Amino acid sequence: MLPVAVANTASGPVKSGLPPVKPGLPLSIFEPVPVGIDEFGMQVLIRLIWRNLLIGGEPGAGKSALLNVLVAYAALCLNCKLILLDGKQVELGQWRKCAEAFVGPDIAQAFLLLTRLQTMMDNRYAFLLDAERRKVVEKIQTRSPVTGEVIWVPDAFLPYVVAIDEIAYYSATVGDKKQRDSFSELLRDLVARGRAVGIIVIAATQRPSSDIIPTSLRDLFAWRFAGRCTNDSSSDIVLGRGWVEKGWSANMISPNNPGAGLLIAEGGSPQLVKTAYLDDRTCAAIAAYAAGLRAEHRAEQQRNMRLLPPAV
Ligand SMILES: Nc1ncnc2c1ncn2[C@@H]1O[C@H](COP(=O)(O)OP(=O)(O)OP(=O)(O)O)[C@@H](O)[C@H]1O
């Protein structure tokens, strides 16, 4: 087994010695996700569930590559759904067959999609309130309607991983000002309130300055990864103000080292990480495998539904 780095998670450290990933497939979005290695060669994991991640850095820093690693993991988790927004289309396009929705360079569609997610989020909160619960979990305890035994079953609804490659495309480039502002407001609401109901936003941007994403939105991301930044101020914009003064700047990363960056969690301190990298062929192979796995799972669920006795 590989040694595991003590990652600075927002919900407490992922302890050294924790098994990296449970062997076998499918994976679980409730488990910490391997993202790369630290400077000692130890594996770095991040817990995405109930969290959001902002990925920043200059062009070519490795933002899309990290996004692809995370989307690949999520695609192999049958206990989560995928939503993809990609202005360039080709960065996340390979995963579209694994996703519930894939939006390309269309602000109207992006707006509609986020509106539907917001409605779903509100419905989920109404459900949780009714069930006297506070958040979505992997499994809940219930009694078997057949035997009366206490059993564990998957929660009523699945987490959603919402991956956005280049927020700026939707928040500052296409459409008119009203559409762009509405997009940013919706995204802010999802990032602020979506965590407990399992909405995980992973968003990449070249520079998360206030003209691209409102500061009120940027500050809500619990996890942040700064790939190489063109200057100290950009690094502080991604990681949060004050880290450059304490000696942590993603400007110090070599331009010849894409995928290297500083990873920080809410309340933690930055950690130098080299992210894992999946080339196009590997992404295509994983995406095809994951799409097959998901189709098989859907078919099995439909078969099981048909076996249920009719509702009275
Ligand atoms: N972890 C990594 N290890 C090795 N090479 C990497 C890694 N991440 C990225 N690269 C290399 O850097 C190139 C640029 O990466 P990527 O497209 O992810 O950058 P980006 O920050 O998304 O750029 P842009 O903002 O222009 O979209 C990749 O094509 C790949 O060759």
What would you say this structure looks like, in words?
The protein has helices at residues 63-75, 107-130, 167-173, 177-193, 215-218, 232-239, 280-307; strands at 33-38, 43-46, 53-56, 81-86, 101-103, 139-143, 150-154, 160-165, 199-205, 223-227, 260-265, 271-275. The strands form 2 sheets. It has a 10-stranded mixed sheet, with helices on both faces. α2 runs parallel beside α4 (177-193) and α3 crosses α4 (177-193). The chain starts with 32 loop residues before the first strand and ends in a 5-residue tail after the last helix. The chain is 32% helix and 20% strand. It has 7 helices and 12 strands. The chain has 312 residues and is of the alpha/beta class. It has one domain: P-loop containing nucleotide triphosphate hydrolases (Rossmann fold), CATH 3.40.50. It is globular. The chain binds adenosine-5'-triphosphate.
* CATH architect. name: 3-Layer(aba) Sandwich
Molecular shape: globular
Structure annotation, total helices: 7
Q: State the domain count.
A: 1
What string, H for helix and E for strand, traces the elements in order? Answer: EEEHEEHEEEHHEHEHEEH
If you compute it from the alpha carbons, what radius of gyration comes out, rounded to the nearest whole angstrom?
Answer: 20 Å
CATH top-level class: Alpha Beta
Bound molecules: adenosine-5'-triphosphate
CATH superfamily: P-loop containing nucleotide triphosphate hydrolases
CATH names the topology as Rossmann fold
Strand content: 15-25%
